Amino acid sequence: MKIMPNRMDRGFYMYQKEFEDKALDVLRSGWYILGKEVSDFEEEFAAYTGANYCVGLASGLDALWIAFRLLKIGTGDEVIVQGNTYIASVMGITINNATPIFVEPDEHFGMDPGKIEALITEKTKAVLVTHLYGMASRMDEIVTICKKHNLRLVEDCAQSHGARYNGQMTGTFGDVGCFSFYPSKNLGAFGDAGAVVVNDEALAKEFKIFRNYGSEKRYYNKVVGANSRLDELQAGLLRVRLTHMDELIEERRKIATRYAAELNSPLIQLPTLALGATSVWHQYVIRCEERDRLIEYLNEREIGTIIHYPIPPHLAEAYQYLGHEPGFLPITEHLAQTVLSIPMYNGMTEEEQTYVIEAINGFG
Ligand SMILES: *Cc1c(COP(=O)(O)O)cnc(C)c1O
Question: Which stretches of 15-153 are DSSP H helices?
Answer without folding.
Answer: 16-29, 36-49, 60-70, 87-94, 139-148
